[in-house]
Amino acid sequence: MTPIIQVENISKQYFLGESSPAYASLREALLLAIRKPWDVLRHASGNSRERNVQNSFWALKNVNLEVQKGDTVGIIGSNGAGKSTLLKILSRITDPTEGRVRLRGRLASLLEVGTGFHPELTGRENIYLNGAILGMQKAEINNKFDEIVSFAGIGNFLDTPVKRYSSGMYVRLAFSIAAHLDPEILIVDEVLAVGDVAFQKKCLGKMAEACARERTVLFVSHNLAAVEALCNRGIVLQQGVVAFSGTAKEAVEYYLHSSSGEDLPPDSHIIDLTSAPSRLQKYQPSLKSLELYTQDDRPVRGSLPVGAPLKAIIRFHLEDPCMNFDGCIAFDTPSGQRVCTAHSAYEPDRVHEQRIGDQVFICDIPNLPLVPGEYKVAVGLDIARREVDWVEEATRLNIMYLDYYGTGIVPTKGTFLLQNRWTLQGKAVEVDA
Fold it and tell me: Are residues 248 and 305 both part of a single domain?
């Protein structure tokens, strides 16, 4: 089957400290286009090339990609990975330095707030302008006009110049136009983050409709739950290259595991507690170290997917022979509110026997269903039910977004994600159309 989007060896180079030319007129743009081959030859020799190479970087390098009609592709990666650059090339906003793109369908893109809007024109006029840019006939736009306005919720401001719109109004109208004019290819960047929660749900619902109608969607988002729920394919970009391509679920898992503590040293999952600054002076340093692991004993370096298993290894020292001792690990919000505590005293099969010297506690948490966000991790040691050592902030743990419930909706309230099932009793009421 011939792909609807075909990307062949796309690369994009930027030069630091150089801005793109601002075209004052069509004539100027044409002159620059004619001069471009000569500029390339001129820069290909001498000090000019050396200067440019030293002050340049590749936002994308040799990217190859094929998207079939009806695919919904989530593109994920850390900031600076090249996601937005790729979408701008696909949207014909910028040209690649190398390679080529083939599009076999009408494309609509929503990359930045107000892209394609004329600030002096009203919302009504911009709807027709954007539709014309997409190649729509006026009759087609008329048929969708009421749906666009209703979805965007800007009825009272329809005849107001868009330069007076808030960023939220901008994005609501822009998405509504792009989604309702039935493009064969829809490209959506992280711009949806501008809208409020209710509008984001409407947008995700509209994108799900597009997927059901076999429209091709390219979706860039840091909301991994939405990517996993909406997309059938996933691509991970890292430093301008395609690091992984597969199903959306596989791509999300790859990204979470590869990005976990990517800026931290390899042994950052091992925290030295002997001289921890958050230990109170009244305690002797009996706690020696904390080690954190997740599924398949993979080290946890700063981040953990929501609901993932966590294994904590606590190393400590008993100065005197002791039988009654316990360890604990606690999770607090950044403001210091206690969320939950895992304590060896809660273990029903706990074996009490006399020990001395260096010891190791292993705490296995099958899943850690904390709401996505950052948490402080504390570690403690009790002897004879008395706290003898406590490190208030041994480390911090970032719980990352994942489609925990399989709905694409990420809970943001509370601290725990509860396992729950809902059913609706009775029969639906039939309503005459």
Answer: no
